[in-house]
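Methods — Computational structure assignment.
A single polypeptide chain was analysed. Its primary sequence is given first, followed by the predicted tertiary structure written as structure tokens.
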Amino acid sequence: MKQIKLIMTLCCLMMLMGCKSRTFINNNDRTNTLPALSVKGNFLMNSNGDTVTLRGVSYGWHNFWPRFYNESSAKYIINHWGADVLRAAMGVDIDKNSYINRPDFGIECVSKIANAAIENGAYVIIDWHCHNLRLNEAKEFFTKMAMKYKGVPNVIYELYNEPINDSWTEVKNYSIELIKTIRAIEPNAVILVGSPHWDQDIHIAADDPITGFKNIMYTLHFYANTHGQSLRDRADYALSKGLPIFVSECAGMEATGNGPINREEWGKWIDWMNKNKISWAAWSISDKNETCSMLYHSASSEGDWKDNDLKEWANIVIEELTSSDFVPAIISE
């Protein structure tokens, strides 16, 4: 009896102090009721016309960390971390295991994450994770993916991870060709378009957006200890021009993926995304010896991670995913 009273007292104290406890979120009950998404103005919407804000995580490059690309890890992240979007970052042309050299392996890895997201009632971003324009190979890949997942409301297509040296004119023309490719098969899925300079020059895209297609959003990437108010100002300008934004990759440390986590600036970004109802995916599910990799080498490949498997960054992301103001997409405002 004393133990029960003690537990009740501690719970009351936590409520009074406004503490956030980690609450695992089970999404299994929405597996068969996941709404299709569309873009209206600046906002991502569900089929009921409600504004949707997705929050989740991005896997690291599939060619470097294929061990995490399995159904079990995806299920764990969805059902225990509370993610309602996963990003499958398929490395295109970095090494021998990249898509260019092993296309079937890349498709296999991406499909495992996509299939698990669908089965567990979450959305998935199929990400062409590349820094170079490879139009012909991208057309081939997205044709296969669009045919495989035609009519599945869970799937979002990201056309170009982070353009670096390409101009907006080049990226725009490339994106239009891929949008046409996907739309010939899948007329309604949400498509994410990159912008130059590691997805930083979104203000340039805002001055010359792609027209003639529906359900298009533009990606913005930030690392909070490098990118601050000046990038938010660019994004605010883009929003003021009516450009819908999706933060498909973000983290709290330096743009190198290393260095200290700037919790204050991360909090400002979270506040900004919440204010503007912008969806995001945090980087990354991997075990590299760097700050942004969420897992230590001790972490299993299949999930069920213990506290000592998780780095500081993982705990910060989980805290946000399980925070009291988190609203799953299916029951948005």
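Note: Confidence is low (pLDDT under 50) at residues 1-32.
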